[in-house]
């Protein structure tokens, strides 16, 4: 892959790339729509991600090239930058803007991006782009940020430059991921534990529904607002900073404070999902994949019925998984509204699982999903640059 990208960089820019970086995508094993509610999530990095090859130029311009998109603009080096419509390059441009506002002089760059993450599938392609750009700029311009600061910069770009009120999970996972391990992250304190993810004879299946969605245009921000309303209602009697500061038992005693039934459902999912992450971490640590799978199914059911961020496509994947005894558990992953589901599938049955799921899904939805097998991989890092294969 690196050799092919180096050749492509040479074709485009007529010179060698001096630096190369990689940042993965992520899946969230459990703990959905928790990150902006101050609770626990359990993401892991995957082996798909974003490659960035880069060289400085003397032309006082940023050249954004991607092998995934037709739009490849050039932006003059300036004192500040603004989002330009909805182009993909706004993600790295927002990172440049943040570095610039922090007082770092970012000079002209020729950049080539390539991602093997399915775009719009809910595997954090945007966070992957943001983090790999921040990591590269930090190294190239000796900005002195530590990894956590880079994560916070990437989140700020998503919130303030792109306009999506997301939490910190995606950026954290693609930066701090470790091979064959999951992260249990407290999104309030940013304290985290690394949990060995011994899947035994099971593999992680990633099922792209092939129904893409743009989160900024979805009801994602609406869910954030609903959670804030629930928190305000609960704080008529409780002094909570986040919804996840209480457990399900405490919520049940005070849920009558939330007068809007829909808002109450949203809060119920958040609080109960946070409890599920704790149980899932214990199950994974004990290699109890049967219990872990049950919690995955319970998570999906809650996201479908209470949080209402699933849909017929994601539901079809989970419906099929429940009929297959070789599947330990399945659920939607990511923000929902389309995108991807994940499943724990016995390794010997993966081929059959893929074929049968494709047939079931196509019959239900009218077109096929894409099914991938992924490992749990490492977070962002530097790649050796070489023109050799």
Automatic annotation (TrEMBL):
ATP binds at residues 66, 120-126. Mg(2+) binds at residues 126, 158. InterPro entries: Galactokinase (IPR000705), Galactokinase_bac (IPR022963), Galactokinase_CS (IPR019741), GalKase_N (IPR019539), GHMP_kinase_C_dom (IPR013750), GHMP_kinase_C_sf (IPR036554), GHMP_kinase_N_dom (IPR006204), GHMP_knse_ATP-bd_CS (IPR006203). Keywords: ATP-binding, Carbohydrate metabolism, Cytoplasm, Galactose metabolism, Kinase, Magnesium, Metal-binding, Nucleotide-binding, Transferase. Residues 7-56 form the Galactokinase N-terminal domain. SUPFAM superfamilies: GHMP Kinase, C-terminal domain, Ribosomal protein S5 domain 2-like. Pathway: Carbohydrate metabolism; galactose metabolism. Pfam families: GalKase_gal_bdg, GHMP_kinases_C, GHMP_kinases_N. The keyword Nucleotide-binding applies. It is found in: Cytoplasm. Residues 90-177 form the GHMP kinase N-terminal domain. It comes from the Bacteria. The keyword Kinase applies. It catalyses: alpha-D-galactose + ATP = alpha-D-galactose 1-phosphate + ADP + H(+). Substrate binds at residues 32-35, 220. The record marks 26 as: Transition state stabilizer. HAMAP family: Galactokinase. Catalyzes the transfer of the gamma-phosphate of ATP to D-galactose to form alpha-D-galactose-1-phosphate (Gal-1-P). Belongs to the GHMP kinase family. GalK subfamily. This is Galactokinase. It comes from Mucilaginibacter panaciglaebae.
